[in-house]
Write a structure and sequence with these properties.
By secondary structure, this protein is mainly alpha-helical. 66% of the residues lie in helices and 0% in strands. The protein is built from 10 helices and no strands. Helix 1 packs antiparallel against helix 2, helix 5 packs antiparallel against helix 6 and helix 7 runs antiparallel to helix 8. The longest helix has 19 residues. The chain is globular, with a radius of gyration of 20 Å. The chain starts with a helix and ends with a helix.
């Protein structure tokens, strides 16, 4: 398993440095194949204390923090699901995701942000830290996807007036994303007989 993992990561790491015409998507297919190999290793290891699991997680966490491979269209964040679903190394993953989100704050658009937030919420629930969910969503509510998640969580906690205020504050004729907030707001107002 270790040799297969090392070979897969060497190939993955070399793709961004390869000067090749990728118009047919061949490097993407190779990257996907390498990620599938890592998935297969995870699924075959039965001893949850096997060192290879920690090595794979370390590799994924480094990628999560740097987004180096992602910048080349190689997305390995889905590998994290294995560890979360199997309740392995949750504290390490939590710290790395929080770090990655903090680093990404200066980017108005960050593709993985929504997924990292979803993973963190899952970890918070597993670790009985559900009180951190609202503050996490509020902190990153500048991102439209996260803002809608934040509003949904407020509604779930029966904080309808706060949800309405959050959406009202987001409405701006100059901002083309306002239509998403307006649609959500109108639905909440209708559902709660506030129109």
């Amino acid at each position: 398993y270790n040799t297969a993992f090392i070979i897969a990561t060497i190939i993955l790491d070399s793709i961004p440095n390869t000067d090749i015409d990728d118009s047919d998507g061949s490097t993407g297919m190779i990257a996907d194949f390498c990620i599938k190999i890592i998935h297969n290793i995870l699924n075959k290891v039965t001893d949850k204390k096997n060192i290879i699991l920690k090595d794979i997680l370390t590799y994924i966490i480094n990628e999560v923090k740097t987004a180096h491979l992602y910048n080349y269209g190689i997305d390995i964040k889905e590998l994290l699901k294995y560890f979360i679903d199997n309740n392995l190394y949750l504290n390490d993953i939590e710290t790395s995701l929080e770090t990655a989100l903090t680093i990404s704050k200066d980017k108005s658009y960050f593709y993985s942000r929504k997924y990292y937030i979803e993973y963190l919420i899952q970890i918070y629930k597993l670790n009985n830290k559900e009180d951190k969910i609202i503050s996490l969503l509020e902190e990153f509510s500048f991102d439209r996807n996260i803002c809608i998640m934040y509003v949904d969580e407020l509604i779930k906690q029966n904080k309808i007036d706060t949800a309405i205020k959050v959406l009202n504050d987001k409405l701006d004729i100059e901002n083309r994303e306002s239509r998403f907030y307006a649609e959500k707001l109108s639905k909440i107002l209708l559902d709660n007989n506030k129109i």
